[in-house]
Amino acid sequence: MKLIKISLITFLVVGIIGTSSTLLIAGVERTVHNLSVSGPGKYKAMRAVGTCTFCHTPHNANPTRGLWNRSLPGITYKLYESSTLEAKLNQPTGSSRLCLSCHDGTIALGNPRVGPKGIALGSLKGKTSLGTDLSDDHPISFVYDLDLAVRRGELADPLTLPKALRLDETGQLQCTTCHDPHTDKNPGFLAMDNRNSSLCVSCHRLKFWQASPHALSPATWKGIHPDPFSESRFKTVSENGCLNCHKVHAAAHPEWLLRSQDEEENCYVCHNGAVAKRDVEVEFKKFSFHPVEMSQWVHDPKENPFSMERHVSCFDCHNPHSSQQDVKGISLSGTEVAQSAFEYQVCYKCHGVSEQSFSSIRREDNVTNVRIEMEPSNPSYHPIVAVGRNPSVSGFEPGYTPSSIISCSDCHSPHGSDYDMLLKWEYRMEDLTSESYQSYSLCYRCHNRNSLLSGVSGFPHSKHVVDGRTSCSVCHDAHGSRKNPSLINFMVRDRTEKTIVSFSKSGRLDFQKVGMNHGRCYLSCHGSDHDPKEY
Ligand code: HEC
Ligand code: HEC
Ligand code: HEC
Ligand code: HEC
Ligand code: HEC
Ligand code: HEC
Ligand code: HEC
Ligand code: HEC
Ligand code: HEC
Ligand code: HEC
Ligand code: HEC
Q1: What is the pLDDT of residue 42?
Q2: Residue 461 burial (CB < 10 Å; 0-12/13-18/19+)?
Q3: Which of 202, 249, 259 to mutate to test the pocket of ligand 3 (most atoms within 8 A of CB)?
Q4: pLDDT tens for each residue of 325-360
Q5: Which of 176, 201, 336, 466 sits in a 20 to 30 Å window from 59, CA-based?
């Protein structure tokens, strides 16, 4: 019986289409693309009709491609758009128009141009109907040539694609590049199995992808929160690959075809504890946090740090295609770098290009551009971008020396913190704070409390910090000082606008270092006038 069928088809095909690759095509019988009464799907005719008839017409004298037996929709489709797309997209062309003649859901399925009429089949509904808005679908109907691959970068030379992935005879990428409508050997009529993103990476050669945790992690859903893989055949992060975050069709956020409408939700679906080890979502719900939920989709891979609107998103700090912070940044000298090599370069993208507008402590030298505060030419700075200026600092906790390099995230939690200013540990910045390990634990993580309070530096810290209840923040600027050694940059007003340190009687506000472990201050504070006072 089967043999008879196949030979019938062979006859049909050789006769009609004039090719011999027919045995493969016989498989269409067993797929939902067989709309005849014998078809396995939910859309099928009430009577026997040729399987091929729904797409191919036998009555066409011209034996080239495009023997489509469908009236093609005369619709203007909404096309995919993004700021990064290089290709010039056309309205659907070639075989994609055939697919859309059923899959845009506008035309009744049982309506071939030639052949049996009046087959009541209705039109496609639900998930398999892409609609006429194709902006949430992978781009189609554009020329994919070497020129595009070079202009875009991270794309394979189209001549090197696996045989299964075929561009049409005009070199265009179509629905049929990814799908073979004749066989569901790979589920979803895919031309190639997409386990571990093998389909996607045949074309997309993302620079850091192969080593990234999203390409490699065997993690599965842990049974809490919604299952991010509920619509997928694959159950691990590595098997899902690109489709952990992207959707080829019906993407909730059309630009870049992302799965979730809320920017950070694309990541939280797993980084809320559902799949990934750590629950990162809770970190953004702490007392202070980077406001990733506030600025939806302002971030753009093409943005210019010097003119972009204020915002922050996961993708500003993490390259989702990598394992590291391979994102844009700003260098020490204030110029843009395409890939940050250091964490501070990422932070400088937003905190090192201009003065910060949010209200904060006011200091004697009130610069808030962190890059300027930490310039290695300043008299003092915490050693982040370069080794510090003072080789004789002592009293460190184990692990630190005057030649250590530290990072922004040694003091700040980049996501969020229970403490103010994203600080990793408590640091009381208000005047008249009672000294304890807890009050200044941020500093005491690296600077031994006993050494400091017993006077290693020559400065009577104990007298000021313990007896006078003066916060470190009143005298020191945790980032650096453009004017003084020892990170001295006095706080003139606290965050409530209260005056803290002011001019001495003679009108001076000054710190002078007079040799090792000696210095002199001109100022007025806590009702005491130093005009000057020496230690
Ligand atoms: C759902 C629509 C659909 C059905 C049903 C269908 N085809 Fe096709 N067929 C296509 C499309 C689209 C192409 C063009 C493929 C391309 O451009 O790569 C095609 C191309 C072909 C080709 C050219 C060789 C090739 O692979 O490019 C042959 C031969 C063919 N079809 C035979 C058949 C036969 C025989 C049947 C019935 C058993 C059939 N088709 C059913 C859509 C269909
Ligand atoms: C004659 C109408 C028709 C044409 C033309 C057609 N399809 Fe389909 N297609 C269907 C029907 C009917 C289904 C089953 C839908 C359902 O069950 O919801 C389907 C299902 C699919 C599915 C989903 C299969 C699955 O297992 O989930 C894919 C993918 C698909 N078609 C791709 C294509 C592509 C690509 C083309 C063009 C080459 C095409 N179709 C042309 C009618 C058509
Ligand atoms: C870049 C590759 C690619 C292109 C181009 C492409 N598809 Fe798909 N399509 C896929 C993949 C991958 C899936 C499976 C999605 C999944 O597993 O989540 C899919 C799924 C589908 C489905 C099943 C419904 C669904 O959302 O899962 C239909 C129907 C479909 N495609 C039709 C089309 C049509 C029609 C076109 C052309 C307008 C097209 N596809 C173009 C890769 C592609
Ligand atoms: C046959 C090659 C091919 C396959 C397979 C393929 N793509 Fe593409 N994809 C392209 C090309 C070419 C572009 C257009 C790039 C451009 O014009 O800048 C593109 C564009 C995209 C875009 C939009 C890029 C932008 O800048 O807006 C996304 C997202 C994307 N692809 C994801 C995927 C995913 C996920 C898969 C696997 C399911 C996949 N692609 C499979 C070739 C392919
Ligand atoms: C962890 C989530 C995630 C995974 C996994 C992922 N992407 Fe993306 N992708 C994104 C996000 C988010 C964007 C949005 C652009 C941005 O801000 O960088 C994006 C943008 C893109 C773009 C367009 C912009 C650009 O940077 O080129 C392409 C193309 C793309 N992804 C393809 C892929 C392919 C192919 C894979 C699998 C090999 C993949 N992505 C895996 C999240 C992901
Ligand atoms: C489908 C689940 C899933 C999605 C969606 C996802 N991730 Fe992941 N991610 C993981 C898993 C699993 C790991 C491996 C480490 C682990 O288990 O915590 C990982 C690792 C990471 C790492 C590296 C951590 C390390 O230990 O080196 C970063 C950074 C990261 N993801 C960021 C993101 C961002 C940003 C997004 C959104 C654009 C995102 N992820 C979306 C599952 C996911
Ligand atoms: C301001 C920059 C910044 C933003 C915004 C940001 N991150 Fe991070 N993230 C970092 C840095 C720096 C690290 C490494 C230091 C650390 O672990 O504390 C990190 C670490 C991670 C890790 C690894 C944690 C682990 O150890 O398992 C994951 C996962 C992660 N981030 C996901 C996200 C997600 C998801 C978002 C958005 C909701 C996000 N990040 C937003 C800078 C950022
Ligand atoms: C893409 C931009 C962006 C990047 C990159 C970025 N931030 Fe932020 N940061 C912000 C925004 C937006 C705020 C909220 C206040 C504002 O609008 O200025 C903020 C606030 C802060 C605050 C003050 C929090 C408060 O409670 O007032 C600190 C501290 C901070 N960021 C540190 C960092 C560090 C450290 C890095 C690098 C790991 C970093 N930021 C990277 C945009 C960014
Ligand atoms: C992660 C470790 C670390 C933390 C936390 C830390 N420091 Fe430092 N600090 C250093 C290192 C390393 C140096 C040495 C720099 C040098 O030799 O110039 C230093 C130097 C200093 C200096 C002397 C600078 C000079 O040029 O003489 C002062 C003052 C200082 N820190 C104050 C503080 C205060 C106040 C805090 C709390 C807000 C703090 N530090 C938190 C590591 C740290
Ligand atoms: C030694 C600890 C330490 C390091 C390292 C550190 N910060 Fe800070 N940062 C603080 C403290 C403490 C504050 C609170 C304000 C103050 O004390 O003046 C702060 C405040 C901030 C603020 C809020 C605005 C402001 O200036 O008051 C931003 C933004 C900031 N830091 C960014 C950074 C960036 C970016 C880096 C890395 C280049 C960094 N910080 C490194 C301790 C540190
Ligand atoms: C009243 C002002 C004042 C306060 C408050 C203050 N300091 Fe200092 N600190 C100084 C001065 C002045 C020096 C410079 C001493 C010298 O080398 O001449 C200094 C030096 C230091 C040094 C360098 C030590 C060395 O070995 O060279 C560290 C570290 C330091 N302070 C940390 C702190 C910490 C932590 C706090 C809060 C617990 C704090 N300071 C509070 C004024 C102050």
Answers
A1: 87
A2: buried
A3: 249
A4: 789 999 999 999 999 999 999 999 999 999 987 668
A5: 176
Pocket test for ligand 9, best of 380, 421, 446 (most atoms within 8 A of CB): 446
Q: CA–CA separation, 304 vs 83, rounded Å? A: 13
- Our measurement of the distance from residue 419's CA atom to the centroid of its chain's CA atoms, rounded to an integer in Å, reads 26
CB of 422 closer than 6 A to ligand 8? yes
Short-list 94, 194, 76, CA closest to 141: 94
Quote the CA–CA distance of 230 and 488 in Å, as a whole number. Answer: 57
| Total count of residues recorded for the chain | 535
Compute, in angstroms, the gap from residue 156 CA to the centroid of ligand 8.
37
Q: Using the atom order of ligand 2, give the atom closest to the CA of residue 70.
A: 5
pLDDT band at 59 (very low <50, low <70, confident <90, very high): low
Q: Please write the tens of the pLDDT for every residue from 469-486.
A: 999 999 999 999 999 999
Cβ distance 26 to 1 under 8 Å? no
Q: Distance from the CA of 290 to the center of ligand 8, in angstroms?
A: 6
CB 79 within 8 A of CB 135: yes
Q: Is 55 in the pocket of ligand 2 (CB under 6 A)?
A: yes
Contact 181, 99 (CB under 8 A): yes
**Contact partners, residue 507, CB within 8 Å, separation at least 6:** none
Closest Cα to atom 35, ligand 10: which residue?
347
Query: In this structure, are residues 356 and 312 in contact, taking their beta carbons and an 8 Å threshold?
Result: no
Alpha carbons 191 and 189: distance in angstroms, whole number:
6
d(CA 287, CA 102): 53
Test site for ligand 1: of 20, 57, 113, 182, most ligand atoms within 8 A of the Cβ: 182
Which numbered atom of ligand 9 lies nearest the CA of 440?
37
**Under 8 Å CB-to-CB from 61, ≥6 apart: which residues?**
none
- The number of beta carbons lying within 10 Å of the beta carbon of residue 373 is 23
pLDDT of 351: 97
As a whole number of angstroms, the distance between CA 230 and CA 274 comes to 12
Q: Which residues contact 304 (CB under 8 A, 6 or more apart)?
A: 336
Give the Å distance between the CA of 84 and the centre of ligand 6.
23
Query: What would the two tokens of residue 262 be?
Result: 């809320």
Q: Which residue has the higher pLDDT, 322 or 69?
A: 322
> String of b and e for 91-111 (b: at least 16 CB within 10 Å)?
ebebbbbbbbbbbbbbbebbb
- Select from 390, 444, 442, 433 the least CA-distant residue to 526: 433
User: Ligand 5 center to residue 317 CA distance, Å?
Assistant: 14
